[in-house]
Amino acid sequence: MNSSSSNSVESSTATVLEGPPTLIRVPEHTVEVVSDSGEGAQKCGQLFGRTSARMGNGVWTVEIIPAEIQPPARTPGSASGNRIRIGTEPVTNWGDAANVVVAFNEQVLLSRHRLDALAEDAIILIESQWETHEDPTIREEWRTAMEELGQRSYQFIRVPMEEECQKILDIPARGKNMFALGLLAGVYGRDADILRRLIANEFRKKSQEVIDTNIALLEAGIRWAEEHLDFRIEVPIAQGERAMVVMNGNQAVGLGAIAAGMELCAMYPITPATSASHYLSEVFEDFGGVVHQAEDEIAAAGVAIGASYAGKVAFTITSGPGLALKTEFLGLAVMTETPLVLVDVQRGGPSTGLPTKVEQSDLLAAIFGQPGDAPHVVLAPATIEECFACMITARRIAEAFRCLVMVLSDANLATGVQPFPRPEVTTEWIAAPVDLSPVPDGTLPYQWDPEAGLSRRIIPGQPGGMFTATGLAHDERSKVAYGPGVNQLGCTMRSRKLAVFQSTLRPPTVRGDAAGDLLVVGWGSTEGAIIEAVDRARAQGLAVSSLHLRFLSPLEPGLKDIFQRFGKVMTVEINYSDEPDDPYITDENRRRGQLAWLLRATTLVDVDCWTRVPGEPLQPKMIHQAILAHLAKGAES
Amino acid sequence: MIEEGCSLLGCGTDDDRSFTMDDYAGATARWCPGCGDHAVLTAVERLLETEQLPPERTVFVSGIGCSSRFPHYLHTYGFHGLHGRALPVATGVKLRRPDLHVFVVMGDGDCCSIGAGHWIHTTRYNPDMVVLMLDNGVYGLTKNQTSPTSPQGRPSNTQPRGAYLPGLNPISATLGVTNASFVAQTGDWIPEHLYQTLSAGFHHRGFSFIRVLQRCPKFTETLFLDAVRDPKNVELLVHPNGIVAPDVEAIYQNHIAHDPSDLTDAHRLAELDGKVRLGLFYRNASLPVYEEVRREHLQSAEQKLALLNTELDRYAV
Q1: From the candidates B120, B295, B308, B309, which should be mutated to test the interface with A, based on the most A CB atoms within 10 A?
Q2: CATH fold of B21-314, please?
Q3: Contact, A172 vs A165, CB < 8 A?
């Protein structure tokens, strides 16, 4: 789309086009849909993302969420919606900036502009009613906003969304999102049949009339785009061989728990973890499972421990504040060696923090947050696919090692939608029935292997196995004992299990050359953005590689050897760290990124960090700039 | 929940077994001499023997405090967990394993203070379990601090000028919870009444909340002393559907006829008016029981796999 055509588009929205539209072919593109909270831009974005995935595009979506349910309309704080990045190849992160935006009013657009979320030449399809609105205050707001937005070379296309919807619907505000979806479908050539099917499914609990109206709105949007827009965007589809599924990270966690054969999820409502239990509540009972909504976070942990103690491994799902409340029970799970899986969908902290926004600030609390020595496994999925798979891994580890396994997801994974190869599920993943056979004579409840610390798990109902599990220090018979030797032995045995588990892990793979000037280390949901940034740096000829950790406790082996092959090592994380040149900050008092703390302590390598806490996922361009800055700093010294 | 192939009467267990009191005895109890906990333990052992409960299918869950050592002194399964948090653990056990007989033992600090939220909510969940709240009106293990049920004016290490407020009334509070299904009170000094109350609780389908009035020989020796010394100072709630203990009724002649299905009357009788009333305040066996409401049909691994594939179809690209 060149500037002359954009001008002509801008001035000719009401006229029907002549001649074929310009086709813009790109390997990837980023779209945003923003509205006031409650106007349905999220649903529009989700359906656009799902349709693109079904057509075979790579997709990554990120929700744009206001902190309140119904903030005042037409304010920047009200911006709600979705960013959808689609590509020919798989997409692993939300990218840098939006190329095409559908905005329901100029104020929500302003909020995205101020966050630097829009590309310099972004094409913006904006609801035009506000410009000529009968209320002079609104007209003035529009004028001021457009002045500010005019600082960039955005290309505006005014769309009479409300007016068009009115032809179909009495209250047009209720259907604008489907019209917007139609606009995008027209621009990107989305398959209208898939869209109609998804809409019918979306409203399957409503009347046929509702479904028909929404489909009519979609079609009106497509028609409007065909008749008025002089460009089309094509993101070619690379047809893969493998069957794919598409879902968000919380759905993947729920499905993973089912595939692992877990039968109890105990939870208390907390953002951004709750949607996983919504999903499970819908389907778990068909599998014989139960979602128990407990009276509080603490009870949720207790119920999961009770169910695990008496049967199959159960799990509890929460976010930072809930993790804090569950702390005492987590120590109990470790002490009694009751298998337990805890999923922490991290959000911004401390305290109530940023409930709907992403952060990776729970790492150290997850590993070290329990008073006393409470060794346990902590792992972190990096993709939606891993959100599914890690539940199966977590259940197995918990059972095999009679231990607590924490899974650190985050708000980015929880709400992000990404297609991935359909898992070939097998009964081997599903937990075996509870063993109620008699316990061999003489078996002790904590008959620790003296080297490995492992012991046979005994379950109530097993004849001959009667014992009292206790949170007090105890010996192999589970007898309360305070002797110095007993406590030393118990701590050793519980700790040794972690070392044994670590011995089963492989060293992590370095992406890029095995040696170089800089190694970027990450964990969790940032992998895609880090890889994209590192690839850009490598394309510039820089000797940068990256490494992504899945196991944080115990850490994957061989890290020190890997680190020593690089001039510098730097973590990239979404948590807080002091900048080295900030006032008062010295090398000694500098508080570093949480993974950096851990890696420095473990490897004695001078690991640096670059971290940010913007409440949104990191953009590849930010990481790329940090890499360049870091290498430049190294060159100076 | 147990798997198919295991009947409720056990898996690989010998149904001809018979159990004596000794079969249920665990470690030697280490409570202070004169502690009411000993009496409760004896009543429990008698119940286990009378009901011939297989030790491997019986689970005692406790919190933290003197009374919470209880599971260690029995040869059944036990879970000695966190202060105030016995009820969530017990709920988890019962939710997935309704075949197990679940008992909970807590103290007054455990239940009515740090675990008060769980007490209210588990009463409402109404899982089928026997809950013994051993109430001696003091924190004993941590050495004499005021508990929520300490009588007003009683000095302690934390309130040396005497407890500032009137004690909390656990019977009234439990009766006030929606879906409360069994609320009884007994005393550690009347073994037969204690046993019959326990037995009635065991046979009730639902959450059987039993408050056992006790004295701590170390710190609250004089609590309920009048009632202990003279049966005239006890009011016994009697009814054919209540706690039936003829020998006790012969000695404790101060009877109040109370139909345990009458909730309004139960509330009135539970009022703190200086009287020690023992018996069954309320019973309703028709209320929803959580693990029954939430009982799901178990699926085999193969069934789950088929369902999982159908579920994945919903997300297929």
Answers
A1: B308
A2: Rossmann fold (3.40.50)
A3: yes
B151 contacts chain A (CB < 8 A): no
Lowest-confidence segment of A203-207, B124-128, B137-141 by average pLDDT? A203-207
Query: Which parts of A513-555 fold into alpha helices (H)?
Result: 527-539
Strands A28-36 and A79-87: antiparallel
Residue closest to B103 by CA, chosen among B157, B154, B40, B50: B40
- Share in percent of chain A as helix, strand, coil (round to 5): 40, 20, 40
Taking CB atoms and an 8 Å cutoff, what residues of chain A touch B56?
A: 460-466
Q: Give A 22-61 residues with CB within 8 A of chain B.
A: 53-54, 56
DSSP-based three-state secondary structure for A253: helix
For the A510-636 domain, the top CATH level (class) is alpha beta
One-letter amino acid identity for A456? R
Q: Per the CATH hierarchy, to which homologous superfamily does domain A245-429 belong? A: Thiamin diphosphate (ThDP)-binding fold, Pyr/PP domains (3.40.50.970)
Q: Identify all chain A residues contacting B93, using CB atoms and an 8 Å cutoff.
A: 306-307, 309-310, 460
The answer to whether the beta carbons of residues B166 and B272 sit under 8 Å apart is yes
Q: Does domain A3-234 have CATH number 3.40.920.10?
A: yes
Q: Which residues contact B68 (CB under 8 A, 6 or more apart)?
A: B62, B80, B86, B105, B106, B107, B110
Tokens representing residue A183 in the block = 């606009």
Q: Nearest-CA neighbor of A108 among A69, A68, A65?
A: A65
Task: List C-alpha distances in Å: A158 to A6, A109, A309.
Answer: 11, 13, 62
Q: How far is CA A244 from the centre of its chain?
A: 19
A535 CB-near residues (< 8 Å, 6+ apart):
none
Taking 50 as the threshold, does the pLDDT of residue B309 lie above it?
Answer: yes
Tokens matching residue A203: 């409203």
Q: What is the pLDDT of residue A263?
A: 95
Q: How far is CA B167 from CA B83, B138, B279, in A?
A: 20, 11, 20
Residue ranges of domains in chain A: 3-234, 245-429, 435-504, 510-636
Q: What is the pLDDT of residues A59-104, one digit of tens each?
A: 999 999 886 777 899 998 899 999 999 999 999 999 999 999 999 9
Cα–Cα dist A273/B77, whole Å: 34
Residue A57's pLDDT is what?
95
CA B175 to chain centroid, in Å, comes to: 14
What is the identity of the amino acid at A447?
A: Q
Quote the DSSP letter at residue B7. Answer: B
Q: Do A560 and A606 contact (CB within 8 A), yes or no?
A: no
Out of A53, A259, A307, closest to residue B317 by CB? A53
> CA B116, CA B145: separation in Å to the nearest integer?
17
Domain segments of chain B as ranges:
21-314
Q: Is A42 exposed, middle or buried (0-12, 13-18, 19+ CB in 10 A)?
A: buried
Interchain contact A290–B (C-beta under 8 A): yes
Place of tokens 């028609």: A223
Q: Scanning the structure block, which residue is given the tokens 């500032």?
A: B164
Q: How far apart are CA B74 and CA B29, in angstroms?
A: 9
Assembly ipTM: 0.96
Question: Any idea what the Cα angle at residue A205 is, between residues A200 and A209, rounded to 5°?
Answer: 60
**How far apart (Å, rounded) are the C-alpha atoms in residues B131 and B78?**
14
**In contact, A309 and A266? CB cutoff 8 Å:** no
The answer to whether residue B7 scores a pLDDT higher than 80 is no
Q: Which amino acid is at A409?
A: S
Cα B147 to Cα B163: distance, rounded to the nearest angstrom: 9
pLDDT at residue A170 in the model: 87
Residue A380 near residue A523 (C-beta atoms within 8 A): yes
Strand B145-146 to B138-139 pairing: antiparallel
Q: Is the pLDDT of residue B274 over 90?
A: no
Contact (CB, 8 A) for A473 and A480: yes
